[in-house]
Specification:
- The chain has 204 residues and is an alpha/beta fold.
- Helix content is 57%, strand content 12%.
- The protein has one domain: P-loop containing nucleotide triphosphate hydrolases (Rossmann fold, 3-Layer(aba) Sandwich), CATH 3.40.50.300.
- A 5-stranded parallel beta sheet has the order 2-3-1-4-5, sandwiched between helices.
């Protein structure tokens, strides 16, 4: 079983990934933000480091997918390889923060990697408003995220919605998270678990 959690910065992917990992006894694979050597530099100088950062994430997520396939274990992944290619890299390119040459190089590499991996059995998309994203980002207090603008988050949200509307690689579950608190409210977590059970196992 390969389940992935997608969503904008601050949508709650990491939190929900951890909670679902415990509930379903799935192995969690997280986005590498602690040891990522490019994040601080990227947020301080996006144009200089955008390509390096996107290649780092692409490599990291591709490696994760190959590892789960070899392990045979049930996996839940925090953010997908598709988000890098359909949302973050195109957004940086459109904003003039990644050159045409680098973007084409990136897309060619992604297309090759995508041809070698299977999509998730279930994609869970956490839909969030911008005010909720801003509140969650401030609450977790990652220093490198202090410079993220509302305009940047809005651009990403628009790309997420466009991508999800056209997603056709497998089962998709959309959860609106603005009024949900998976950590402090067991009913909210139960709501998500029931939806996932229905999608994966047909249980209602």
């Amino acid at each position: 079983m390969y389940v992935a959690v997608a969503g904008n910065i601050g949508a709650g992917k990491t939190t929900l990934t951890g909670l679902l990992s415990k509930h379903f006894k799935w192995e969690a694979q997280y986005e590498d933000v602690v040891d990522n050597p490019y994040l601080d530099d990227f947020y301080n100088q996006m144009e200089r480091w955008s390509f390096n950062l996107q290649i780092y994430f692409l490599n990291s997520r591709f490696s994760q997918i190959l590892q789960f396939r070899e392990s045979g274990r049930n996996i839940i992944q925090d953010r997908t390889i598709y988000e890098d290619a359909h949302i973050f890299a195109p957004n940086l390119h459109a904003m003039g923060l990644m050159t045409n040459r680098d973007f084409e190089n990136y897309r060619t590499l992604f297309n090759l990697m995508e041809s070698l991996v299977a999509p998730p059995d279930l994609l869970i998309y956490l839909r969030s408003s911008i005010p909720n994203l801003v509140q969650q980002i401030h609450k977790r207090g990652r220093e490198y995220e202090n410079s993220i603008s509302i305009d940047y988050l809005s651009r990403l949200n628009e790309r997420y919605e466009a991508w999800i509307q056209n997603y056709d690689k497998g089962k998709l579950l959309i959860i609106d998270v603005d009024k949900l608190n998976f950590v402090d409210n067991q009913e909210d977590l139960g709501f998500a678990v029931n939806k996932i059970d229905a999608e994966l196992y047909g249980l209602f």
